[in-house]
Each structure stands twice: as C-alpha cells, then as structure tokens.
Amino acid sequence: MKRLRAVALLMLACWTLPACALELYGIPADDIALWAAPVEGKGVFAAYRAEQAVNPASTMKLLTGWSALTRLTPDYRWHSELVSAAPLRHGVLQGDLYWIGSGDPRFANRDLQGMLRTLRARGIERIQGRLLLDKRAFSRIGSASDFGGDVGRVFMVDPDTHLTGLKVAWLRFFNDGNGARVTLDPPLAGVRLSSALSDGGEGPCDDVRRSVSIQVENEQVSVSGALPRSCDGAQSYVNVLDHDQYAAQAFAALWRELGGRGPAASGRGTAPPEARVLASHDSDPLLVALADINKYSNNTMARALFLTLGRVAGGSGDTVADAERAVRETLAEAGISAAPLALENGAGLSRQERVSARLLGEVLRSAARGPYAGEFLASLPIAAADGTLKKRFANLGPRLRLKTGTLDGVRALAGYWQAADGRRLAIVAIVNSPRAAELVPALDRVVSDLVTRFDPAAGVPPEYNLPVPPSLPVEPR
C-alpha cells in the first residue's frame, strides 16, 4: 500500500514538474514538500506536496524577516535609554537610575559601556539609588516548548527587553609562560569561576573546547584540562544567570571599570514620566540584525525581532499575539494565503510552527519583487561561502543563496538561485522525517536538480553526488 501511494505521488509530480521527472534520491515520498517558481514569471516551476502543513524549522525566520523589513523598513533601529528623575549633586546621582530596554537583539556589552561613558561624561561618579530595569517593551516573550532537554544551551536563550551580549559570558584563555589560566569577561559578581587548568604543551588549538572541559551549574563555571600553548588568547562562551541578573551585573562590572560607584541594588521598575534622559543608544539598522539572524540562524535574535513586530504594531497589549497579527496582516496585504500557518515564536525553534512550501515560496517571491529585495537577499547564507551554508553546494557557488532549517526530524532549505542571464528561481524544499539528518545529501541533490532544470547552464554534472557533511548539527538552527 505504501509503495502504491509513493507511485501515485510520483505520478502527480510528473504533472507538475518539468520533463515529467522527480528523483527523490531515497527520500520517502511522504516526507518532502517542495515549491519553486521564477521570480520574474507568473507560473510555478515545480510543486510537490506544496500545500502540506510542514514544520519549517529555521526557514520560518524568512517569514519573520520579510514581515519586519516590510513593516519596520531596513533602517529601523532599537532605542535604549538610561533615565532618572533624581538630582545630580557633586557627582552623585541621588536616586534611582532606570534602564529602559527596547528588545534590541544585538545590544552588546560595548553598547552598554558607551552609555555608561556618557554617564561619566555628565559628571556622575556614584549612583546612590538603585538600577531599575524598565521592561515595558514586551508584555510577554512567548515560548519555545518541548525543548526541555536543551535548557541551558546557548541557542535556547530567550529574548528579553534587556538582552545584553546574548546573555553569554566569555571565557578568555591564556597560556603565555605564566601558567594556564582563564578569566571571565565581563567579570560578573554573581558568577563563580573555578579553574583547574594545566599546561598542555605544544599542539593545535582549532577549538579550545576540544582541549578543556567547561561545566556550568547555576552560577558556578568550572574549567579543567590541559590547555595547549597555542590556545593562548582563545575564547569560548557560557550561558549564565537570568536576564535581569546578567543585565544588572554587566552594568555593575562595566561601571566599576569606568571608575563608577554604586548602584546600591537592582530590580525592576517603571521610569516616571518626569525622568530625564541621561544616556541613550541607537542600534545598528534592522538589516544588520537580519543578516545575523539568517546567515547564522540565531534563534534568540529572531524571536526578539518577532516580538518587536508585536511591540511596534501594538493593539491588544499582548506582544506575542500582536506579532502574529502583524505577520498575518503582512501576508494578507501581499495577497498571500496564510493557510496552513501556525506560529509560536517566529524563529522556527518550535515543534508547533507550520507552513506550507507554497506559503514560504510566495513569501520569497514577494520579497524578491519588493522594495527591499536587495536587503533581504543579502541576509541569506551564500552557498559554499558563509553562514550555515558554508560547507554545502560547492558545485553551485554564490549564485545560490539559501536559508537552512535544522531540527530533530526536520531539514529545510529556502532561498534563491540566480542564473547567469539574471533570471531568478525561488526555491523551498522541506523534509519532515525521523531520518531527516541522514537525508541531507539527498535534499541537497533535489535542490541541485531543480536548479539545473531551471538553468541548464548551471553545469552540475549528472554523476554529481554530494558527500555527507562531516558532522551534521543536532542543535536547532
């Protein structure tokens, strides 16, 4: 029965694909959905199970990014402020300082340090009151459910109004003749770092984590092992503390580095209307954040962008619900049917999110025809060159730009091929299968076939067979 169903599906593919051919290279017929269409044309070049609801993994970031470009524009910037209603006398801010967060996904320690330098330039030497985090920007952050086994992993860091440095602390390693050692940057007061490093002598240092063991348990970070001398200056990162603790302790550490004293304590609070702005920071434009999100498939940043859509759209006061409404309205305005869309966090870090290959493909085609086509395209990984596509599609090269999607049971690709004559093909191919990880070479071959059918000049030899990647990622992308 299963074989008859597979044959029937392949016969259907013959009616929708050029040359009456669809080679799946071992992918079960029920486990793949694809859609491809010329950007400059009206028709559909290829469609197979294109209306089926499938888990897109991180290719969902394309929908969120396109919605953000459309509604916010590429030059949108997140604005953060330090404000206070307290008087400043003799270098002492005699009251509370409020940090108004905006959910900036790329807010880094250097940006916080810049704001603190402004405080010092104003003559503030000591903060007598508290540091209070004003978190009104997001009413709630939503969920990424059913990832309990991954709690504590960096890709699981939640978005936050005061996301700082992606809430990771850097471990910096040294072995320069004065003993093997490690430091924490920034030096967070609430994090205890213990080291049992020894001199590892000569040897390579491709990845310091291969030479040392790093364990994180609550606020305790323990590092042990033999550190090669070639690892002098190497660094790695750890996910520590909760968002409020990290933001407050990063503030305190950087403030001390600048010679500042205080604050007396930290917590949450709403800035009073009469508070004056003492320092502020405007982020890099949205298009910079979008490149980080798509090229490196950053879940935390994508979720923050999704929430920003909700914050800017407003309406119900529920940031997550408002974000979903903004995405659906963007689809409707572009004339794209939202069926069978299901959203959880807009990043694809979800067991619940669903799209169809057709829906995602229509988004790609709309993006490529829209006013921000260049910005959208520039955010995608380039085949065999960068991001999550750096080690794939060496045969096709930079004319192919695809967003990857990786979850347990999901492998996905979505993006564009540009032919030498300028014609473009929007491509979506999604595998949902318990064997998805081992089917990556077959998925890549299916995409290569679509490219060569659309553009015979692509020149992929018929005997071309993609090798299995040396290490398939097991973390969501």
From TrEMBL:
InterPro entries: Beta-lactam/transpept-like, Peptidase_S13
Signal peptide span: 1-21
GO annotation, biological process: peptidoglycan metabolic process; proteolysis
Keyword line: Carboxypeptidase, Hydrolase, Protease, Signal
Record's keyword annotation contains Signal: yes
SUPFAM superfamilies registered for this protein in UniProt: beta-lactamase/transpeptidase-like
PANTHER family hit by this protein: D-ALANYL-D-ALANINE CARBOXYPEPTIDASE (PTHR30023), PENICILLIN-SENSITIVE CARBOXYPEPTIDASE A (PTHR30023:SF0)
Designated name of the protein: D-alanyl-D-alanine carboxypeptidase/D-alanyl-D-alanine-endopeptidase
Biological classification of the source: Bacteria, Pseudomonadati, Pseudomonadota, Betaproteobacteria, Neisseriales
